[in-house]
Design brief:
The protein is mostly helical and 106 residues long. The chain has helices at residues 2-22, 44-74. The protein starts with a helix and ends in a 32-residue tail after the last helix.
Length: 106
């Protein structure tokens, strides 16, 4: 379950970065998504509206998956710390008799 949401989260993050980079800006971003030279399918204003809506939707979905992943990570049954559980008692093994070591040949 967490893996599926994590993959969706990563796809949303990549899509969000792409949509933000496509937007036209006052400064010096890529500005690929619009411009005066683009004729045909969409005008500059409709492209800006589409990209703004897409950014808002992707951001909302990204926040939802972030909160879901945080909630699922907080409810895992794994212990939070190794100090929460005492160490199990160590059982000593009886020592086996060892054979004497052979002398080294020179």
């Amino acid at each position: 379950m967490i893996t599926v949401i994590l993959v969706i989260h990563l796809i949303l993050a990549i899509a969000l970065v792409g949509v933000v980079l496509l937007q036209r800006s006052e400064g010096g971003a890529l500005g690929i998504g619009g411009g005066g030279g683009m004729s045909g399918f969409m005008t500059g204003r409709s492209t800006a509206n589409l990209l703004t809506r897409a950014t808002a939707i992707l951001a909302a979905l990204f926040i939802c998956t972030s909160l879901t992943l945080a909630k699922l990570a907080g409810t895992s049954p794994a212990p939070r710390s190794i100090l929460d559980h005492p160490m199990p008692p160590v059982q000593e093994q009886p020592a086996e008799p060892r054979a004497p070591a052979a002398p080294l040949a020179r």
